[in-house]
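Model: Ready when you are.
Researcher: Fold this.
Model:
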Amino acid sequence: MGGYSLADRGPGRASSSGRASAWYADVRGLGEGLHMEEPKQRQRSLNILVIEDEESIRRLLASILELEGHEVRTCGTALAGISAFRHRAADLVITDLGLPDQSGWEVARQIKAASSGTPVVLITGWGVTTAAAEAKRRGVDYVLPKPFEFDELSAIVSRALADIGGQETAMDAKLKRAIRLSLRDGKLTCPAAWKVAEQVGVERFAVGEMADQLDIRVSHCQLGLFGYGEKRLGEHKIMKPAHDATPELGEAIRAAAKDGRITCAQLFEIAERLGKPALTASAQAEALGIKIASCQLGCF
């Protein structure tokens, strides 16, 4: 995938380019060397089911897709994968061709029988080729031959996302339900929104975006900046003097600020590191004349 690489960890392992040679790499130490650059743009999250019998490849695919912001479930056999899909549908299914119990073609057939609109990606072995028309006839939307580059997989996921288009994905439905179940007096509090992000497995910004789409207001900002009363009456903030502020806190805020601004995420990180309440950190920033920007939920 465009921003990924496997760090060079010795003979027989992937080079830092992370391209096709990665499929010959030893990926048992996966977590040590997988890196991702900052995504160029935010995209919708998908619920993806990966069916692959080789554990190293299964783990690799899951890790890469999760780093792209998708929710991933994995299975090692065709029967387990089909059962998992029937229990809970996915937005996209990625299956290996050579599974131990049934072929990937049979997986595709049964996935399409259960949900004709779900895209299926078939990973084929070295030297195996198939015509696009034949693959489509047999329930496969995309064929990904080994060895492949990470960005080839990324491109296929992006194409699947485009094909899904305006349809509501399983992840969208899950996020909407979690938000609606978390409302208090018709509003979504900031702490509840953070909890939804953790439960659903999406970025906090995605929760804010979805709340906005649902025309649901976010309230009770954890930094005390909004959502506590009528803005026209000046009651929307609960900024209080930072009685427990320390010189160390002020220095940390000044060091992190750039052009008189500090982000919400930076302020929370500083507060946590120094063992201070978030409200104390925000009050200190305000006392220093430093503007707090870039709400993690996208509210400001």
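Researcher: Now this one.
Model:
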Amino acid sequence: MRCSRSRLHAQAIHLAASTYITKQEDINEKMRAILIDWLVEVHLKFKLMPETLYLTVNLIDRYLEKEKIKRSHLQLVGVTAMFISSKYEEIYAPECRDFVYISDKAYTREQILKMEGDMLSKLNFQLTTPNSLLFLKRFVKVAGVHANPRTKTDLLANYLVELTLQDYKMLKYLPSQIAAAATYLSLKTMGANPWVRCAPAACRPHLRLNCSLGAAPRACCALTLSLTRATARFHCAVFGAAAAHVLHRGCHPALRARHEPAAQERGCQQPAGRAQEVRAGEARLRERHPASRDCSVSRRRASRPTGGTAADAVRSRRLDRRRGRARISRVLL
């Protein structure tokens, strides 16, 4: 027990406080989420390692905890944090001019290098910190869902952990707790048996900490609820309220039991099936555009060749894909 507490204390040494944003005068939680969302795209553009993104978010939070900055310099802090993280984690790190270009030349090379020195001095050059990804890799192996190719449970757990990067409210939890809750929630969602608490004497030494973190329902219930709410907020922002409603009702029995009474009081209805949604969308389109009511199907049939060459068939498939992308963009907009 004393060893577990010392390990938990070691995780919190280089983590930002969960209330640091209240000390900032010009930025808030939403701006932090927008910055991290942009950094995810930069991370994807440069094809960096996942550990680089986690270290970037950690450096941003720790620096903002120690220094008050203006809103106009928030992107500079994010770019510099990723610049430092890529030097630390990557073999072939992007150069400073690459970050100047990716920020649309909003900041010069001298400003990024100056911010790099200031950030490293404020953090006392402490860059080695535990993150949720490292714990998740271990917990997935212990849960028996690690395989090559990767299983759906493994991918879902990584997805849930990545969603916590943008959520400021998840800073109050330790990285090991977030990873354990993500593994627990992914196992429950995929219908697998979650971990059960066992006596420390019956566990192997390297599994005692995992059992104490991920197996106890009391220790994991609040974190799992927060993690599911964060996922629901993300799905609601991207896919609409119906996706969040389905997520609350379907992914965890405890959340389903809590959500059903509130849903009955508000008069929420079960979301329609996919076929009903498609038919309703087609009906709305026909009402808005009566002229295309009869000719939409005929155009699709006419675009498919009945007996042409291979080039005609390829051209027809490209046209179908373009029309499909156009329909998707109209729905999202």
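Researcher: Key takeaway?
Model: Residues 136 and 179 are 5 Å apart (CA to CA).
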